[in-house]
Specification:
Largest sheet of chain B: 2 strands, antiparallel
Number of strands of chain A: 0
Order of helices and strands of chain B: HHHHHHHEEHH
Number of helices of chain B: 9
Radius of gyration of chain B: 26 Å
Shape of chain B: elongated
Strand content of chain B: 5-15%
Radius of gyration of chain A: 23 Å
Shape of chain A: elongated
Structural class of chain A: mainly alpha
Oligomer: heterodimer
């Protein structure tokens, strides 16, 4: 394992180690199927394991094994790596697509592609910094979001230079609007009905909410208990996080809950 | 404690201590690392959403993942071919002028050269070598000597692309014909 700045070795979260320990003794042909249910950090480890195995077969072949046999082993490893990369690729795409939601679909695809290729370079290139590769096995999602944020910054700058930045339609300026009662997002926190709705049904209903920001606001507010605002500048709040007014975020939440309710109603 | 410690290290500590992205945990970590408040806020928000949403993938996700898989496999093959030790036949081999020109053409096309485009490029450098038949034979020789490798990229039409191996790059530094001037950045190889 690579080391931190203070010289201490990086350690994987115990849950990731447990998944790796459980998977390593199983037949390698099962790994691609297991990967679907494993944490991304564990999948990254398994991919690296197979990559290093192929490298050993190629560079230090044991005596008595023919070149043809070695090629076959490496090709089988590649096939398994391919399946596991597919699993990671879908997860990366899903995360980055959400991060790049303010871009048009073509640019969003470009951003996803750039992030995915960057992650693959790190995961598969032999001369990659071990520190970065290790991080993929420790905190995969944060690493992907960080990469996405770097790439998005680049595209933002590029579009601003070209003067083509077209932010998604945003109903932020609500000063002239008639104020509507925001019954579902009351100031003093969610009611039991809303909490039940979120905890039980968020996964079922989330696909119907079209704006990811609305869904994020619901999750942060109802699942994680973020306040709308905080008097303490060091305490994160929804207003500071989204850089929108409280009323705006309340409306997002109200709309998202309405859509989710309807979605669950459909299923009844 | 502020930004003296890289954020990656903070995240690692955090993941060892916290099992859920609750707001209480976020506040705790902001107090511990006030210099990283913004990064922590984004980290916890991403974590919460990733954890809450189901693993549902769109068609776009499937398509992008398929493309990434193809990229990853290509990367592995390219790396493997480049690190393959040169066959003994290549040791001390003095290349003919045609082979040198073809090797340069493959190098200039940066892995995107097919026999046809390599022939065109070779012909641009030295007119008499712009013949597909002799270029194919030269590619065959260079491949046998471990100086180039063929790559069958996934695309609609099956095409073979050629790239220079490490042994080929070493051979490029010894090119001694007028066509040498075509090699961009050859100095970097020496």
């Amino acid at each position: 394992m690579a080391t931190r700045e203070d010289g201490e070795p990086y350690t994987r979260p115990p849950t990731v180690d447990a998944e790796i320990d459980e998977t390593l003794p199983t037949p390698q042909q099962e790994w691609p199927y297991r990967a679907i249910h494993l944490k991304s950090e564990a999948v990254a480890y398994l991919i690296d394991h197979l990559r290093r195995s192929s490298e050993d077969w190629q560079n230090r072949p044991p005596q008595g094994v023919s070149e043809h046999q070695i090629e076959k082993i490496i090709m089988t490893n590649d096939e398994r790596i391919g399946h596991m990369v597919m699993t990671l690729g879908k997860r990366i795409s899903r995360m980055v697509r959400r991060d790049a939601r303010d871009f048009d679909p073509a640019t969003r695809n470009d951003i996803v592609r750039e992030v995915e290729e960057g992650i693959m370079d790190l995961l598969l290139m032999t001369d990659t910094s071990t520190r970065h590769r290790a991080f993929l096995e420790i905190a995969f999602a944060p690493f992907v979001h960080q990469r996405a944020s770097d790439v998005i910054e680049k595209y933002d700058a590029l579009q601003q230079r070209r003067g083509t930045l077209q932010p998604v339609a945003d109903e932020e300026d609500d000063s002239d609007e008639i104020e509507r009662p925001v019954e579902l997002a009351a100031d003093d926190g969610p009611g039991p009905e809303e909490i039940a709705l979120i905890n039980d049904q968020i996964q079922k209903a989330s696909a119907r909410v079209t704006d990811p920001r609305h869904l994020e606001a619901v999750i942060l507010r109802y699942r994680e208990g973020w306040p709308f605002e905080s008097g303490d500048p060091n305490v994160p709040s929804l207003v500071r996080h989204f850089k929108k007014s409280r009323k705006q975020i309340q409306r997002w939440i109200s709309e998202a809950l309405g859509v989710m309710r309807a979605a669950i109603g459909d299923k009844k | 404690m502020s930004r003296n410690q890289p954020f990656e290290d903070v995240v690692q500590e955090l993941l060892l201590e916290e099992s859920k992205p609750s707001h209480a945990a976020l506040v705790r970590w902001c107090q511990r690392y006030p210099g990283y408040r913004e990064e922590l806020e984004k980290f916890f928000a991403d974590w919460a959403v990733d954890a809450a949403l189901p693993e549902q993938f769109s068609e776009d996700d499937d398509r992008m993942a398929a493309r990434t898989t193809s990229y990853a496999l290509h990367l592995l093959r390219r790396q493997r071919a480049a690190s393959k030790p040169a066959p003994a036949a290549a040791e001390g081999k003095r290349l003919s002028e045609l082979d040198q020109v073809v090797l340069i053409a493959v190098h200039l096309l940066g892995g995107e050269g097919t026999p046809v485009t390599i022939t065109l490029r070779a012909g641009e450098m030295v007119e008499k070598y712009g013949q597909l038949g002799s270029v194919l034979m030269s590619l065959d020789r260079l491949q046998k000597w471990g100086m180039v490798y063929a790559d069958h990229k996934d695309s609609d039409k099956p095409k073979t692309y050629y790239n220079v191996t490490l042994a080929g790059q070493r051979a490029l530094t010894e090119v001694d014909i007028p066509a040498r001037k075509w090699i961009e950045g050859l100095e970097d190889l020496t």
